[in-house]
Amino acid sequence: MKKKVTVVGAGHVGSSLAQMIVQDGSADVALFDIAEGIPQGKALDLSEACPLWGSSSSITGVNDYSGTADSDIIVVTAGLPRKPGMSRDDLLAANAKVVSGVVENASKRSPGAVIIIVTNPMDVMTQLGLKVSGFDPKRVVGMGGILDSARFRTFAAWEMGVSPQDVEALVLGGHGDLMVPMPRFTTVKGVSLTTLLSAERINALIQRTRNGGAEIVSLLKTGSAYYAPAAATYQMVRSILFDEKRMLPCAAFLDGEYGVRGVYTGVPALLGSGGVEKIIELSLTEQEEKDFAGSVEAVRQLAGKLGL
Ligand code: APR
């Protein structure tokens, strides 16, 4: 029997993710949304593409949480996206209401699942997901670092005229304006960016990465990025489904790691069937430590507004 992934939110991110999962037959999918007809219509459309993709996955659109029962993974993409001029943090109150309802309803029907939170402001929504589900923190994880790192990889590849697949990058901290791109751990086939580009060019890439989500929002005007967010979430889904144990930057619950306790933030984590199976601790320079602490503090303050 195939594993089952529930994707909550059949909007741009959720439906793109659902497509990636069924296109290569990784799992069966339950696509949930409050909007009637939307998940059913998208699921039917995707089902009709399966013979063309040579996929035997099944996908069902549902408005009732009973259809999400016994999932191995629950991905939460439900909620509002940003509009031009908004920061991710501006979504706090509206999306907190959505995420707490979704997690409460979905987690009790799939008590053994790993929950991946995508909805912004993601680090705080993940913390809320932990509280509402009552799950082990290892089984509640947020998507942000892979996306931020992919943006950094893209801009670095363009700058150097190399294939983006040869660029590896690491971005730590919260998935917000104070994220911490790490040029020291960003490499082209193992060669550090710091030896390949001037500090000035690297700073320009860091700024564009920090502004990567807003750059797309300002172009789209009616919503935020979804192809790369879905692709980043898909990497996490696969690593958990197939116990790949990939090392991926994710929002994980820190319990003393990096000198931080009781908050979610982006760190390199080993993702397997148990969720976050290990957090990789890097030794940071004084400046990196300062930037990381600033980013964590911003997450903590935002979480405080929800009493978390
Ligand atoms: N339960 C289930 N679905 C909901 C609920 C709810 N309580 N509230 C809203 N939704 C659904 C909407 O009906 C819509 O289909 O969530 C979907 C959101 O889709 P989009 O508006 O297209 O937003 P999207 O671009 O997918 O972004 C979703 O992911 O990256 C983040 O910042 C982004 O927080 C945003 C989220």
Structure description:
There is one protein chain. 44% of the residues lie in helices and 20% in strands. With 308 residues, it is of the alpha/beta class. The chain folds into 2 domains: 139 residues, 3-Layer(aba) Sandwich (Rossmann fold), CATH 3.40.50.720; 160 residues, L-2-Hydroxyisocaproate Dehydrogenase, Chain A, domain 2 (Alpha-Beta Complex), CATH 3.90.110. The strands form 4 sheets. A 6-stranded parallel sheet has the order 3-2-1-4-5-6, with helices on both faces. Strands 7-10-11 form a 3-stranded antiparallel sheet. The longest helix has 20 residues. The site of adenosine-5-diphosphoribose has 29 residues, from helix 1 and helix 3.
Features:
Rossmann fold, six-stranded parallel sheet, three-stranded antiparallel sheet, 308 residues, alpha/beta, L-2-Hydroxyisocaproate Dehydrogenase, Chain A, domain 2
